[in-house]
Each structure stands twice: as structure tokens, then as C-alpha cells.
Amino acid sequence: MVTPGDxxxxxxxxxxxxxxxxxxxxxxxxGATASRLRHRWRTRPARLTAxxxxxxxxxxxxxxLPFLLRPAPEPVxxxxxxxxxxxxxxxxxxxxxxxRFHLDRINRTGGIxxxxxxxxxxxxxxxxxxxxxxxxxxxxxxxxALVIGNTSSPTASxxxxxxxAARIPFxxxxxxxxxxxxxxxxxxxxxxxxxxGEFIAAYTHHVLGARSATxxxxxxxxxxxxxxxxxxxFTTKGRVHRVVALxxxxxxxxxxxxxxxxxxxxxxxxxxxxVLALPEDPALTTLTxxxxxxxxxTVIGGDDLSNAQFSSRLAASHQERTAPxxxxxxxxxxxxxxxxxxxxxxxxxAAAFRDRYGAMPSWKAMSGQTAAxxxxxxxxxxxxxxxxxxxRDRAAVRDALAAMNTPDKGIxxxxxxxxxxxxxxxxxxxxMGTVQAGDIVSAPVQLTxxxxxxxxxxxxxxxxxxxxxxQGKVLARQQIVYTGINVNRISTFDTREGTFKAxxxxxxxxxxxxxxxxxxxxxxxxxxxxWTAPIRKxxxxxxxxxxxxxxxxxxxxxxxxxxxxxxxxxxxxxxxxTQPSSRVVYVVDRxxxxxxxxxxxxxxxxxxxxxxxxxxxTVRDLRLYKAAVGSTARLGDPDLAQGENGVHYAQYVADVxxxxxxAPFLVKNLLPLLLSAAVTYATLFFPRDPxxxxxxxxxxxxxxxxxxxxxxxxxxxxxxxxxxxxLEWAYYAFMFLVGTCVFISLAGAWIDEHDxxxxxxxxxxxxxxxxxxxxxxxxxxxxxxxx
Length: 787
Hints:
787 residues; alpha/beta; Acetylcholine Binding Protein, Chain: A; Rossmann fold; seven-stranded mixed beta sheet; disordered N terminus
């Protein structure tokens, strides 16, 4: 007899008694099916999870496989021809660095419609014959969509006709000889020698007060066109005493030619300046010879002499060491751009360039960057983004370059607005530089063209001596003020009010009117601030120096879109009270331009201390640059003639970048949220029991309300802004996640009421996977968008 619960009479394997036979019902297929279904319901959660994972892997593979198997996009090829060897190697390297630095940035941001720009480098060896052979070789290469290059006018003059015959667009960054762009396929990202010569002539007559001049030039496309441009312009107001040609086949002046040059300079009855239309090496040889033989006249050179290499060679010469000032004193050189006169965007590019190459870019490097910039824009506008280019593609690129012929059709560049004039050259001002401490810096007085937007009363400006008329142009006489700010301390940063307190030294070095120091701070936030007398001042050789210490509060616009990963620019802005930008310009003192940015962050009072006095913030950077501000209205100014478009003032900006200390901020403000998230996730592991449903929902709702309270507390330090900051999105994501957990809890309770255990198990598995996946996805979004 078998008693209840006694298994002794059952089979060891299946629990049935010996001799048992299946009934008809048990032996039927339906009975077997029911048994299998019960087993399937028990194992389905694990199978479902595996199936979901498999589906996700297949989907990921389906999405990524086309990208993995897709061939790399074919590049767009641009030929870069510079002088890697020979006499122009240094200048060639400067151009190459500017081009490569810009194209690297372009490629990092997707290139041209996803296609990278690849350079095909060539060396013209600073030799015209080699430049022509190189151009012929490039002309046979069907990959080349455009050519950038040739360091000098002689090499570019030989190459340009070859590119035109091959119908390849050609952009030269530094060759200034007029004839290079005579054909419609050639462009340049600098000015012509005629334009340069006219400005040098105007400066010589109106600023230096010269009535005569002696011109020394080399027999090349560069030297001849520059000398001719100066001669034709200067003879309308003064007299060119003599024009002397120098240089043999190698470009170096012969002894007899140097003697003729010395005689010409000595016999000028008015002792006018000597204009050197020469490259670097002949210019250094000629200037040394003249100074050694007693010629003390002012010397003016062209753009080829306006670089740090030549100025340092002057300062290091034996003649300079023997007689200090003999080589660097009374020396001027024309330049398209000098580093101390860069605006904010240009200075930011120059600082990034210095971080990579260890030195500030020369104007040749900046012109190389501009050539690469207009080339990329032309390729984009012509929709050329493939390797095998056709004649039609090249014609489209040429047309896109030619279309950049007005300011509104141009592009923004390091010089400002970049566009080509009727000679297919950039419309750029000429900046006159002088040598100080071995560096080329902006001369104390400049002549600058009025902008096309300004309607000036020419007669009034001329009669007042604020402008000069030359070659049909009206040029404003502009006072250059070398300005420096050395910050001692940045403190008391109020993010709600948008104010900060700054303690700094401010100095001016200038020649001419003391109106240069009649300045104000447009973003001053302290109504009680008053200017005090300079704490130090001096005057030597016509150069005045004034030093002030300023301690006051400034206002600054703030952007909190990235809060709490935000960075802010605390700007100290200086401008003249009365003089517009056509009369006074503040440029960065050369010593500060060369100074390492880390050194700029040290206090002016104690170099062992930093300028960082902000709790919970870190000072990251300090940039000094010139800017401009103005109004297109007369604003009731009776000194403005009727019809004038307004007044524009030069500004000088010290831009201090500060970043929030994110780590302690996140620990303090996000730790409660993380604990709340952990508690919410723990509720997903509660057992299947109706008694736990109310507890789960209660904890999840409490977490949601706590997040709202925490968000209000975290953002209480912010001003009223009309946008959602980065941290708010994280809280909103958490509230959404908790809301879905509440839905899951209620859905689980409903499923449990219907006694569907397998469905309840599946829901729990999905929710426990969904929660961390959602959190990781939010974290990845933040990493991608905020770095």
C-alpha cells in the first residue's frame, strides 16, 4: 500500500508507480504538447533575452556593415609649389605651414563634402626654370583641381602662363609682381607691387615729409614693378633722384653697382630716403654697404623685407653691433599684415598656429592660410569633390574664385573680409612696419584708406590734416598706440549679475597727440570709477610712455548653454573717447605678442603668483587683440558732415577665459541624483508581490520630485535665461527615466493580477536592461556634444 507522500512505490526516474501505463489522454499528442508548452513558458525569459540581444547585434551589424565595407572617400588634390630648398626655403616653409595648418583643420571637420583635401607637394628650388618645368608637370596631372604656390615673383611669373595654358586655377600667396595675374586663371592672396609702391610713395611724402627719394631695385619682375610703381606715384608730389638697378644673375649686387648706389644716395641734395625694391639677401648686402659708408638716410623696403627673419638679421649684423641703431634705426618695410595688428579672430588663429609651430605666423604664413581658405571655398562652390577632375571642373573652380569680387561675395579671413579686386588680387591695406628690439612692428603712424561704407567730407579731413590725397585716394593719417595690459588678479566673478573684478596694469607707448590716452572702458560696471594720473611716465626720442594701474568692476555677456561645463570670456575693453578708428588704433605691444600664453597668466605684481583669484573657477587663457565698434548713425554728432555713415572706434580687448571647476561641482550637486538613481534601479529587483507595488511606485515618484527640487537648487546660481542649459537636460532625462519606471511598475502589477508569471518575468528583464542602457546613452550624448 502506498501512503500519501510516500514515493517508495514510484519509479525513480519519472515518479510513476511500477507497471504504470499511460492513459489515452496522456499518450495523446495534445497531452505531450501541453507538457512542452509548460516547459517553454518556464524557459522563455532567458530565450527572449538571448533573442533580443541577437536581434540588436544583427541590427548593429546591418547598420555598420555598409560603413565598414564602404571604400574611403576619394580625396580632392591640390598642388602646393613652394621653395623647399634654395634661397627661398624659409619663406617657402612659412607658406607651406600656413597652407597645411588650415587644410588640417578643414579635413578634421569633414573636408569638402566628406572628401579630404590632399596636397601634392613640389619644390621649385626658388629657380624660375624649375618652376616652369614643375608647372608643365602639374599640367599633365589629371588629379590636380587647383594650384597654390610659388614663393617669389620670378618663379610665379614663369609658372602662371603654363597653368593658364593648361586651364588650371592658380593662386599665389606672396608673389606681388603685377603681370602674374594678367591671365584670367591666376589669382593672388596679397596685393600688387603697383598698389604697394603707391602706398610706400604716399607714406614717404606725407608721413616722412620727403621731397625726393633714391630707388634701388633688382632686375626681376618683383624689383622692376615695385620700383616703377613707387616712381610713377612719387613723381606726382616729389622727385625721384635716381633709379639704380642692382644684381647679377644670382641676384647679388656687384661691387660696381654698390658704388653707384652709394653715389646716388650721397648726392641727393635733399637727403631723401632710399627705397629698396630688393629681396632679402641683396637688401641686407646693400644696406650694410650704405651704412658702413656713412649713409644715414631713412631706408624703406617692400613686403619681402617685412618679416621677423630679416629684422633679426638686421639686429644681429656686425654693423648693428658695432654701431647700435645703424641698421635697425630709420628702417621701414611695407607689409600686408603684422601680428600686432590682428583682430580677435585672426589672433586666435595665430595663437593656435604658434601652439603647433612654436612661433607666431609671418604675413607669408597668413597669406598661405588665406590661399588655402579661398581654394576650399571655391572647390565647395564648384562642387568639385573627386580625384579625377575635368576641364569643366577646373573652369568651375576658376569661376568660383572670380566670383569673390566684392565684400559681400567674399569670405571671412584672418585679414578681415577677403575678396579679389579687378587685378584678381586681394584688396588689402599696406601696413608700414619698423624694427624694435629685433622684431618688425607697426610703425607709429599709418596711412589707411577709408572704408567704402564711410562717406567722408574730403575737404574737411584734408584741411584739418587728418587725411591726405594721393593718386586719387583719400588716406587717413592714423596714430598707432602700442598698448599692453598685464593682469594682476581676476576676482569676484558674479554669474547672476555678469560682473567681475579686475586688477591690472595698463600702458601706452605712442608718438604724437596725447589724445591717444583719452580712453574709457565701455563695459565698465562701477559708476564710481575715476581715472587717476599715471603711476609712471617718460618720454624719449619722441616716444611717450604712460603706465596706469586699474582696479574696478566690469560687466560681460555670459552664455550658460553648456552649464556646468561652461567657459566664459571676461573681457576688459578699452576705446578712445573722442578719436575714431581712422585716427587712433591700439595695437598689442610686441613684447606681449611674443610672450608665451602661460606667462601672460602670471601676475604683473608678482610673477610667482597667477592671476586666478576665483573660487570654483580656473583661468585658462588670456588673449590681447584689437577690435572695432561703431554706429551707422550720426547720433546727433554736429562734427559729422551730412551724409556720413557714422563713427567707428578702435578698441583694445583683454579677453580672459575662465572655466568652471566641474569635478567638485558635479560631486556636490549630482551625488544626490546618483543615489536617487541607484534607489530607483533597486526597485526593479523587488520580488513579485502585490505588497511591493505601492512601495516601488512611491519610491519612484519620490525620486522624480526630488530631482525637480535638486534641479531648482542647482540652477539657483544662474540668471534668468530663456534656454535650457546642459545640466537641465540630464535632470529631464532622469525624470523621463523614472517616469517609465513608474509605468513599468504599474504594468507589472496589472500583469501579476492576471497571474501571467512569464510576462512579468520578461518585463522585469527588459526593465533591468533598459535602465542602464538609457543611462549609458545619455552619458554618451553628453560626451559627444560636450567633449
